[in-house]
Amino acid sequence: MKKILIIGASSAIAQATARLYCAEDVHFYLIGRSRRRLKIVQEDLMARGAGKVEIDPTDPVRLADNQGVVSRAVQVLDGVDLALIAHGELSDQKACETSAEKTIRSLNINAISVISLATLIANHLEERGEGTLVVISSVAGDRGRASNYVYGAAKSCVSTFMEGLSHRLFRTGVSVITVKPGFVDTPMTEQFEKGLLWTQPEIVAEGIKKAIEKRKSTVYLPWYWRWIMQVIQLMPDPLFKRIFPVSEVGKDQSESHVEQRAE
Fold it and tell me: Which structural domains are found in the chain, ordered by start?
């Protein structure tokens, strides 16, 4: 039986990804803050043919609890084959600019708690000598912008950590994948106008599944975001600041907002 752990399981991308793995021989362990939302996901996956679906309502931001959370998942699943970390929260950039407390809170949610969980899961997979860890980061972490630099800083931290983790586990049989989505149409982005670069969670989920099958290290989703971000990264600073002026802050909060922190 394939054993899948999903943290932030009520997020749109996590749900879309889980649906791709529904089969009688799949055992899911779902973690999120809201029991109600987890129950909805549980019932959906069972209706789609999943073998077993366990839920564990808990808040991954409580770092002291994370060892116990991962240990429970490992015990219930009898080992983890695939782990997806998809929890996070869209930062309120303007609020963070006037509050160090809110900035630290955002970094704890979007970076520190993710790194804590990734470390614990990676160590388990290393002990097994096999398995896959997938973490959703964001293209927002590739270059700081006035409109979303708190969120971007957290994602940059996650991406760098995952890059190093992938390097560390390269010869162990463990696959470590960083996913960097661009604009994704999820409940967290419902207030934004949608354009040509926007995509659906199902498209991102398909990309995640392909990245797992091909044992990719880093994947931009959809694919064209790799080239968009390469151009943005290479852009000279004076030009970058003219193209993305501070006056545009608030009009487009982030390149991603792909996760939804379960309530």
Answer: 2-248 (3.40.50.720)
